[in-house]
Q: What sequence folds into this?
């Protein structure tokens, strides 16, 4: 199972919905593309298990043409539990979910 750790800034999507994301570093995105099963999921997404602090959640990362990387959505529940705010640098552990 491919595992990655990185630090990234939490940012708020400027459109409707109030979605918060971190953008994966491009080197990690390249490794994920190399190890991922092509076209297995919709929109080029990859299932992952993410962790920050003591909180772990299952989600998907989505390709982002603007950054050439992937975006990881950070749920409101996770932000509340870990006291995360927009602009904060967050330590993320990410595992590709092959289940």
A:
């Amino acid at each position: 199972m491919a595992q990655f750790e990185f630090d990234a800034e939490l940012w708020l999507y400027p459109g409707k919905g109030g979605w918060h994301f971190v953008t994966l570093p491009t080197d990690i995105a390249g490794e994920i593309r190399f190890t991922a099963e092509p076209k297995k999921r919709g929109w080029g997404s990859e299932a992952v298990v993410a962790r920050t602090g003591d909180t772990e959640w299952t989600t998907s990362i989505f390709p982002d043409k603007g950054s050439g990387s992937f975006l990881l959505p950070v749920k409101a529940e996770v932000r509340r539990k870990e006291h995360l705010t927009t602009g904060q640098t967050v330590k993320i552990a990410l595992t590709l979910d092959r289940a």
Observations:
- The first helix runs from residue 26 to 35.
- Residues 47 and 62 are 9 Å apart (CA to CA).
- Strands lie at 3-12, 20-23, 46-52, 55-64, 69-73, 89-96.
- The radius of gyration is 13 Å.
